[in-house]
Amino acid sequence: MTLRRAPQHLPAPHSSRLIACLLLVVAFANCEMNDYDKGNGKYSTLHADFAEVTTKQSKTLVAAALDNGDSLTLQPALACEWAEAPATTYRALLYYYPTDNEGIVKPYGAQPVYVLPWHDEYSKPATTLTDPLHVEATWMSHNKAYINLRVGIMVGTDDEGNRQSQQIGVTLDNTHTHTDGTHTYQLTLRHAQNDVPQYYTSTQYLSLPLNGCTTGDTISLSVNTYDGQQHYTFCYK
Questions:
Q1: CA distance 164 to 158
Q2: Per-residue pLDDT of the chain (237 residues; tens, 9 = 90+)
Q3: 150, 181, 172: which is closest to 220 by C-alpha?
Q4: CA 62, CA 71: separation in Å to the nearest integer?
Q5: CA–CA separation, 54 vs 72, rounded Å?
Q6: β pairing state of 47-55 and 60-66
Q7: Do residues 93 and 113 touch, judged by C-beta distance below 8 A?
Q8: Do 92 and 51 touch, CB atoms closer than 8 A?
Q9: From CA 207, how far away is CA 52, in angstroms rounded?
Q10: Structure pTM?
Q11: 49: burial class by Cβ within 10 Å (0-12, 13-18, 19+)?
């Protein structure tokens, strides 16, 4: 089983400081999702969880491991265009309905979550630009495997109607080792607007893997936002 933490139609991040090219062509990439009603309608029991989702054959999701530790079988299997590789695991925000059968859910859709590794100290980032973006939320996953971000990136088309790509990634700028053996990692979220017109906000989800972190470590993340430079601190407990 291959673990692939970025959708196949994007360059998969092979090193911790590589900048992933984020193709912001649509505001919400999905599998088979439509708008849904709020309240007590047929979509009111819809769940949304971050997960590792797995394909059996190309473009077909069959299982998910949620960040809270639950393992789910997707019935029926979910057709998903961006999950191109067979027998592969991707990170995603999974939408589903619970069923009366434990461990079995009815999937509704899945949005890709872009994973930005950062531990490799030897790779060079493709860009060091820090163009601003919006940070809408940050949190550590329940299983302490990721720092998650919900960001808003300004997108638009040029006068000829062309849609250009942007770049986003993370660099490890400094590691401080304390006398008790714990570490403080200083990271910067890198973003290249690439002259893309800024007409409307596209919400995207990012995950920074915490493999290699141990109890007592601190992760400090610096982000240039439209409200100025912001700093976010996470304690690995």
A1: 8
A2: 333 443 322 333 322 233 344 444 333 344 544 444 444 555 578 999 999 999 999 999 999 999 999 999 999 999 999 999 999 999 999 999 999 999 999 999 999 999 998 865 545 555 678 999 999 999 999 999 999 999 999 999 877 777 788 999 999 999 999 999 999 999 999 999 999 999 999 999 999 999 989 999 999 999 999 999 999 999 998
A3: 172
A4: 11
A5: 10
A6: antiparallel
A7: yes
A8: yes
A9: 12
A10: 0.82
A11: middle
- What are 37's two structure tokens? 């009603």
Rounded distance, CA 94 to CA 193, Å? Answer: 28
Measured in Å, how far apart are the chain's first and last C-alpha atoms?
A: 30
Residue type, 227: D
Give the residue among 26, 4, 23, 2 at the shortest CA–CA distance from 13.
4
3-state helix/strand/coil string of the chain: CEECCCCCCCCCCCCCCCCEEECCCCCCCCCCCCCCCCCCCCCCCCEEEEEEEEECCCCEEEEEEECCCCEEEEEEEEECCCCCCCCEEEEEEEEEEECCCCCEEEEEEEEECEECCCCCCCCCCCCCCECCEEEEEEEECCCCCEEEEEEEEEECCCCCCCCCCEEEEEEEEEEEECCCCCEEEEEEEEEECCCCCCCEEEEEEEEEECCCCCCCCEEEEEEEECCEEEEEEEECC
Closest CA to 133 of 158, 159, 155: 155
